[in-house]
Structure formats: C-alpha cells, structure tokens
Write a structure and sequence with these properties.
Blueprint (H helix, E strand, L loop, with lengths): L7 E6 L11 E7 L5 E7 H13 L3 E12 L5 E12 L11
Parallel strand pairs: 3-5
Antiparallel strand pairs: 1-4, 2-3, 4-5
C-alpha cells in the first residue's frame, strides 16, 4: 500500500479483446510489452459497448483502469472495480508551409 491507499493502475492497449457471447462478466487479460500481465473482471455489456466504439473508429486507444488488489506469485496484477474507455486517435495533419 502506498500512503495508506490502494494503488490505481491505468493500462493502455490497442488490440480488440475477444467478447464472449455468454456470461455477465468477462475476465479481461492484457499482456504488456514487458511481459507484465494485468487481469480484470468487466461487465460483458460494458465491454460490448466499448468494442463497438473500437470498431467504429479507424484509429483508437483503449484504457483499462482499476485498483490493484493483488500480485500473484506469477507476477499477474489483478484489478478490482475496473473500467474500460475507448478514445479515438486523431491523425495529425501536416501543414504545408507557404513558399
């Protein structure tokens, strides 16, 4: 614990998660570039709405955030009260300078 509070984590990702057709909650697992694995339980309806957003944007980035509950002996970080948001990545237009 840091300063008596549970640490909160935010993880960015840009790969569509698989959405199961059944069940109320989905166990989402994200593996980072450095091999760290983060797990969180998300409501299936919430994840479905966010996956729809992912499909509607050409370029996007998603964030998974929640409170860190445990780190297993395998080094897997488990989040509690996790939420997911998707944001559109706007491409920067290069302005041409007048000659």
């Amino acid at each position: 614990m840091l300063n008596g509070k549970t640490p909160e984590l935010t993880i960015k990702f840009s790969q569509n998660p698989e959405l199961p057709s059944e069940g109320k909650t989905v166990n989402l697992q994200i593996t980072g570039e450095n091999g760290i694995v983060v797990k969180a339980a998300i409501a299936r309806k919430t994840l479905a709405k966010q996956v729809e957003k992912m499909d509607s944007f050409e370029n996007w980035v998603a964030v998974l955030s929640g409170k860190m509950v445990t780190i297993t002996s395998d080094g897997v970080v488990e989040l509690e009260g996790a939420g997911i948001n998707v944001f559109e990545k706007k491409t920067k237009e290069v302005e041409q300078t007048a000659e």
